[in-house]
Amino acid sequence: GVLLYNHLQQKVRNAEALAQKYKQQQEALSAQLQVVYEHRSRLERSLQKERGEHKKTKEDFLVYKLEAQEALNKEKQDSMNRYGALSSQHKILKNQHDDVKKQLLELQLQHNSLKLEHRKSLESHSQKLTQLQQDRDSEVTNLQDTVYKLREESKLLRKAHQEVHSQLLSAQAQMEEFRQLKEALQKMPGLR
């Protein structure tokens, strides 16, 4: 009986421990379930918010689409008007181009005539230039001869100047000697 009683008590303790374990697991699962419920609630609120924003975005897109369509129509009309203006301007410019083409042909004829005159004038100037160069070369030769002669004269003048300078220095030295001699003679008592 004691063994049976102990055995039953052991089973009761095991059952209580198991019950306690299951209770803890249940509490953990309840807590996890609560977290899941809160997360689901947040997701539902976020989904509602996203749906609201999506609806607003869709409405804004429709408004933008209408405005873009109106702007496109207006741009298309402006483009047509610009095309008409450019077409008229193109016709005017084409007529001007034809006029300029005619003027170009006339100017080309004048240019050819002037080119011929220029060639004749160039030949005449070339002949004059050749004559002038020959005259200049002759004059340069004469000037070079004159410069050579002047250089030779300058050398002779420099040489003469050096000789005169040497003579002047010699004369100054003699004058100094005479002065010293004169002073020496004046100092001699017999000559006073």
Automatic annotation (TrEMBL):
InterPro entries: GOLIM4 (IPR042336). The keyword Coiled coil applies. One of its GO terms (cellular component) is Golgi membrane. Keywords: Coiled coil. Residues 5-60, 90-135 form a coiled coil. This is GOLI4 protein. It comes from Brachypodius melanocephalos.
